[in-house]
Amino acid sequence: MEQKKLDLIHKIQAHQFKDEPEDVGIVTYVGDGIARISGLRSVMYGEMIHFQNQSVGMIQNLNTNEVGAIVFGNYHDINDGEIVHRLNRVMEVPVGDELLGRVVNPLGEPIDGLGPIQTVKTRPVEAEAPSIMDRQSVEEPMQTGIKAIDSLVPIGRGQRELIIGDRKTGKTTVAIDMILNQKDKDVLCIYVAIGQKESTVKNIARVLKEQDAMKYSIIVSASASNPSSLLYLAPYAAMAMAEEFMYQGRHVLIIFDDLSKQATAYREMSLLLKRPPGREAYPGDVFYLHSRLLERAAKLNDDLGGGSITAIPIVETQAGDISAYIPTNVISITDGQIFLESDLFNSGVRPAINAGLSVSRVGGSAQIKAMKQVSGTLRIDLSSYRELEAFSQFGSELDALTQQNLQKGEKTVELLKQSAHVTIPVAKQVAILFALAHGYLTEIPVHEVRTYELELYDYLETHHSTLLDGIAESGQLQDPESLEHAIDAFTTTFKGMHHVTETD
Known about the structure:
By secondary structure, the chain is of the alpha/beta class. It contains 16 helices and 16 strands. It has helices at 2-14, 147-152, 171-180, 198-210, 228-246, 259-272, 286-294, 325-333, 342-346, 369-374, 378-392, 400-415, 426-437, 449-463, 465-474, 480-497; strands at 24-31, 34-39, 47-50, 56-62, 66-72, 83-90, 92-95, 103-104, 121-124, 162-165, 187-194, 217-222, 251-257, 308-316, 336-340, 359-360.
């Protein structure tokens, strides 16, 4: 008994008691998701703080007599005069494989009703982008399964490609199809829903689950009913989750849907924090808001594992105005844009990609050699068709060559149409574009083009699967003559079965 007492005395004597004062603050104002706090003299920008109602906040303003913070979660029962504690660490979120297959909020908390997520690692939401020397050139294709994108505006792993257009032009559908096409391609996907309706997010989760894509995906949702602080945080939190995979040498596709709503939330937050407004009432650092996010997308060099983050930001325009403030900002940060046009969408061209305004600044580097060979003149053909189409509306009589070019353009537009959530492997895309480039669609009526396409895929899969496998594995047209013979034989059979004659 005496020995136990002695041991306890030794433990007490050995313990180092600290009598340092804790740096705490007092809430002086709270409202609309914003708190102003006096005290906290040593606090850092971006540091996490803890309120008495268990809510977490993040420091955003550092003023002489007080600090401004945004509150994540419930701020209604935070009262003036309450004590705020520092957490002595910057804002961070849970990361790791445990998040795959789940729907989470920007704090990494599950909102899908499937129970808690047992993660062990966290990463700060703000991180420095990889330096120039840490990167390598974008040259590995990121196949989207969408003919119009893979042929006209190819995307590579590590690229940042903007999807831009008015509301209801199919921007989200294009993004979801990109995720669906990554099945069995060793690419993890993160979909960030910013300011979306909760019903929309639920439908997206359902589509991904039905197509067996949820197992390699994470959905980060800050819905329209959430405070602006969570809408602002969501892209950064998702990027931190993506970086964990990238630095493990893995490949990630991350979609921000959409950054217009994040900029609006940031504007609301900044005005409440009494920051001076600039153009369109956005704060002066709204460009930096997006540049420091998107610059974190990269293809790392082999010394760092060769992982990549491919970022697909989405921006909504008003009446097709791509020269507005936020669109021009994001266009200047990204490596190209896919412009979706309302007129094309309403006329039945889906995906409604405007080939003239869409561009990939990585270009052919992100295409397989076979695709480069068959899609070389596609953009020029489409552009000349649009010009001829506009011109033909004024003229009553057109010469034979003009009519021929118009018909070819119509068939090209018809061929690039694609149903939602139906992705096409790159080898099949090469085959149908090969048929177009070599004139096999010349005698096929426009209304039969889609039927021709689907039946050609079935024919090649059944009788010439080795040709498709060769294109998929090597990325090259190893035996163009055999492909030409196969398509020639199929076209003859197709014309016979569908009673297609030259007069059609």
